Amino acid sequence: MSRELSYTEAILEATDQALHEDSKVMLLGLGVPDPKGIFGTTLGLQEKYGEDRVFDTPTAENGVTGVAIGAALTGMRPIITHQRVEFSLLGIEQLINQAAKWFYMTGGKASVPLVVRSIIGRGWGQGPQHSQSLESWFAHVPGLKVIMPSNPYDAKGLLTAAVRDNNPVVMLEHRWLHNTFGPVPEGNYEIQIGKAKIAQKGDDITIVSYSYMMVEALRCASILAKCGINAEVIDLRSIRPLDESTILKSVSKTGRLLTIDNGWSKYGIGSEIVSLVAEKRLKFLKSPPIRVGPNDVPIPSTRALANLVYPSTYEILKSVEKSLGKELLGMNWDNLPKVEDTPDKTFQGPF
Amino acid sequence: MSRELSYTEAILEATDQALHEDSKVMLLGLGVPDPKGIFGTTLGLQEKYGEDRVFDTPTAENGVTGVAIGAALTGMRPIITHQRVEFSLLGIEQLINQAAKWFYMTGGKASVPLVVRSIIGRGWGQGPQHSQSLESWFAHVPGLKVIMPSNPYDAKGLLTAAVRDNNPVVMLEHRWLHNTFGPVPEGNYEIQIGKAKIAQKGDDITIVSYSYMMVEALRCASILAKCGINAEVIDLRSIRPLDESTILKSVSKTGRLLTIDNGWSKYGIGSEIVSLVAEKRLKFLKSPPIRVGPNDVPIPSTRALANLVYPSTYEILKSVEKSLGKELLGMNWDNLPKVEDTPDKTFQGPF
Amino acid sequence: MKNLDPLKLYTDMLRIRFVEETISQEYSKQEMRCPVHLSIGQEAIPVGVSSRLTISDQIVSAHRSHAHYLAKGCDLKKMISELFGKVDGCCRGKGGSMHLFDLEGGQIAAVPIVGSSIPIGTGVALGLKRQKKPGIVVIYLGEGATEEGVFSESLDFAKLQNLPVLFVCENNLYSVYTPLGSRQDSKRSIIDIAKAHGISAISGDGNDVIEVQKLTSNAIIEINTHSTPFLLELSTYRWLEHCGPNFDDHLKYRQDGELSNWMERCPIKKLKLHLEKNHLINNRIENKIIEKIKLEISEAFEHARKSSFPDPTELFLHVYAPREIE
Amino acid sequence: MKNLDPLKLYTDMLRIRFVEETISQEYSKQEMRCPVHLSIGQEAIPVGVSSRLTISDQIVSAHRSHAHYLAKGCDLKKMISELFGKVDGCCRGKGGSMHLFDLEGGQIAAVPIVGSSIPIGTGVALGLKRQKKPGIVVIYLGEGATEEGVFSESLDFAKLQNLPVLFVCENNLYSVYTPLGSRQDSKRSIIDIAKAHGISAISGDGNDVIEVQKLTSNAIIEINTHSTPFLLELSTYRWLEHCGPNFDDHLKYRQDGELSNWMERCPIKKLKLHLEKNHLINNRIENKIIEKIKLEISEAFEHARKSSFPDPTELFLHVYAPREIE
Ligand SMILES: Cc1ncc(C[n+]2csc(CCOP(=O)(O)OP(=O)(O)O)c2C)c(N)n1
Ligand SMILES: Cc1ncc(C[n+]2csc(CCOP(=O)(O)OP(=O)(O)O)c2C)c(N)n1
Ligand SMILES: [Mg+2]
Ligand SMILES: [Mg+2]
Hints:
Helix content of chain C: 40-55%
Number of strands of chain A: 14
Largest interface: A-B, 53 and 54 residues
Distance between the termini of chain C: 28 Å
Helix content of chain A: 25-40%
Bound molecules: thiamine diphosphate, magnesium ion
Radius of gyration of chain C: 19 Å
CATH architecture of the largest domain in chain A: 3-Layer(aba) Sandwich
CATH superfamily of the largest domain in chain A: Thiamin diphosphate (ThDP)-binding fold, Pyr/PP domains
Number of helices of chain A: 14
Oligomer: heterotetramer
Structural class of chain A: alpha/beta
Largest sheet of chain C: 6 strands, parallel
CATH class of chain C: Alpha Beta
């Protein structure tokens, strides 16, 4: 397991293997076979599997979502792509009213095996209509599954599971994860949808996050370790179904909870987790749980403001301090990474 | 204030007075001038204000939402209607990406005064695609305001405030409230958006609800009173902005919290409220907060199952017992109203 | 290919008419507690269309789907039980009248969000084509549904991929109570919209079942020979209220005399005249047909009445499909 | 009415070209940190259209809006500052390149969700008509945007209400990297789609500014005399990458030689030939024009560079409009 792939390559490989494994799998979306191949995640697949299985579409998200549902009803297993989750809103009626309810509505007689990949934007001035992260919308709806992998290994394993699932699965990919690297096995493997991962074990506080915010969570955990604080970091991986028992078990042990949201916190993912813990583990809580997430404003384009939207390492660590009820020893508060409008130096826009 | 109106009449009167008061107000939507007039809420208005101001539209929710936004940009104050919130999903891109962000996106230079009325269905076998209640979606989005009046007085006052507001306001109307009656003043008046109401004062437990579930909440409160339990019942009225201080003040006093959701509880309205309280009033909580709401399933058509979806008086009272940590004295558990598929005898379907 | 015998067409129309009339009569008993959109007056279209369909052809419908379902040969008992909310309904009671389907009969879906059935039907055709399965897909849609943008999106996609789709637009002049003129400019043409997308299209009298049958025949030939979609726009008229069991002429949203004119143009009456002229029917034959239909219908209602409601545990069943289905 | 002098058209096109070229050159400095969709090669359409617009006319644009904004006479400094993310940008930095607008100049909106600008522009026209305000609304849209269903919905609504809308479709053959043929059947016709909705429509050469001007004149006359919408489809071509500052011919998604053919058909070059033939331009005049434009542009960039970023407190400003605005 020493081979490293980027998140992009992991998605590409999972898709390639899914297309190879099952002739019913098909891949469609605006730009799928173009030279950029959905940020590299679909490159070369049309050449390999032909235009019948891997193809471009008109700019018509509502129609395309419906078409994918219809094809799924005949036994196909479509994967559709949206370069921004905002574009998917045009097809959300199909996803929510139709796909999510089909199996139930037909009394278990017909299902819609469909994967909807949507990219969540951030940074480089994408602005109010290209930077939202609407996971709590999808997570609210019974009948949908929602995965938000935080690293290449999970991206491949969860996408593989999603394609094999007989339900509509929404995969939300953070643009800033695309160029992150990590070990990825060559063969096919699945990560169970609905199971969280303990990304780091610890006893002092439970930090729950997912998707890109896991990068922040783990960074904070290693800083905390230097201060002698052992954080247990939970990577949700899926937000529906939600792995309640892993969360509850951890908080029972640590007695402290911090959630880091990728999207807005009001009526967000952290709200569900904090409520769950308050309902089921109230007595275990040694201090009030804390939700951290983007500020409750539309995302502005200018970096002067956009950088203020997102939780910083500083804010997260300060929240941990508050939760612990004591100062972090040996912290150098001045030396923390600042929020930037690019994930790394290789990212130079424009999209 | 002895005059009683139905919820429907209260909406009609608020709209009538808004059209009268401001020539920029206009009302459009599929069926607005038809003989049923959106369940009676728009009857006679076209005759009174003319086809230029009150008019029907094609079955084209996306287009109509965009048109209303465009008209609002020129200074008009459109009210649009959807006979079911599910239909509004076709126009949700316009509402969320455009209207909700316009004022922010233009640096405060242009705003979208727009009211979107959507009806939430329930009962009489409406089924999976005509019974959803998606308020937590709208509540998640900064830039929107979301009102959910629970009675005729509030319906008139909140709608009046919504039409005068310079922001997009979503009003969700529960179909089962349409035929409820209550005192409504004749003149124009506003209820402040973002302010909750203490519908009943009490010291023993805080019950937070909104929209149709307030009917249940108040029913339970009066049953509880007979058992010597004084519940403080908060009617949220608006779910964005959320009146945090009224909730926190109440829980500080009672130490107990029960939320009753109108839509699904997972990632729902109750989640935000429970989290808020857990974060800010943890120490005050004498027992774990409890969320009650529709079961986490698509809404089936058959009443044999649909009636099991919604929280019953029994379930709510049992939750209160759990919260109080003691049995309700003198309760006759067998004599409670059952969940029905109609709000009252006058409702005989079909829609 | 179904029987092309006009008497069969007559029987099929009459059967649908009687089913709908029975629902209408029985509705006030409050056993069928779900919205119903009846098709009385519009029977010729589904019967004419389905008379040219085979078992491998699929149909997709919307909110007003009873007639489509029955004409295609789907199961009557499963339909009535569904309306009653019973567990042996086609959706185990979970869907109701607005979600009728029958995979064996060939109605793959009914979707009550206006327009949303159209891309789904288009996708069904894509699935068939990719799997090289035989058959075409008929997508029934109201003229109101053509106002939803997804109609145009689906035309574009169907033509681009050259899918075997027959779009059948039932133009009954109304969307709920709203007349055509308040929704579509008088110069707007559904036929021309299809043609502007490169799709052949033709209009016809939707109350003349023989004409519908002919137009369908020609359309299917075109679809199969040129592997291209086709659109039929057929004029017709709904007699009862949009949703519910009753007449609603007193509401005055219809033009004066409009309903009675259209009732004169009843598709069943029209075919009967033709049959009589050609001595293909007499009282004895007709009575036998009626008797058989009535028996079948009363059995279906009796069956539904006696059937059980789903068990409470079914509430949590079917939210998610398991890994292995079928 | 703006100056119809062809030299003015030339100046306007050249000014847009230079602004876009400057953005392209300066982009790598990473001061303009937002996606940019440049219009080099497509200048004739907005310049030709705007040459027939008055100050009371409004335009609505999409993601590729620089040229529309500038041709309409909106403020250059506010645009460049916006690209720099500065507080004196047209959106106080909150919008970036994809949200340019200038209420005084008449660009009421730019909307980067493909197609979503179309009903908004239609609604602007409704608002003007209801308030009996003068002016028409020009809605610029790419040929890709015609694939979104809301295009058809907007055509229907605009015609139904007879709104003063001029739809200007800039057909540049691509949506991002996807060629027309992968998105629209060869028999699909945007002109015919408009006509099928009852809207007059005509196509023309979008790289010939004089032709654009003429077509626009005629369209506006039709809109005003018959109070009806109108659609123009104008062919053109984007030289640079879809989003970003560079050429991208090496990506090979364009046909071989396609770009160079279209560069030959440069709208500015074409008009210059015409001017030269009619002795309306010479080196001296041209140099003066260029000098003036370059000065204006460098001043705008200098200004943007020196301007401040919005204060951190602005993050929470403008989420909700207060009761009293203006
Ligand atoms: C998206 C959406 N908007 C509105 C409705 C409400 N509605 C139900 S049926 C119907 C009429 C549609 O008219 P048409 O397509 O002509 O079918 P018809 O009822 O005439 O058969 C409408 C508007 C809906 N179900 N879905
Ligand atoms: C709804 C939606 N889908 C996809 C996109 C991504 N996108 C941005 S610009 C664009 C191209 C649209 O093509 P066209 O309308 O022809 O305009 P052009 O770029 O050619 O000027 C696309 C697909 C988007 N912004 N919005
Ligand atoms: Mg109709
Ligand atoms: Mg284009």
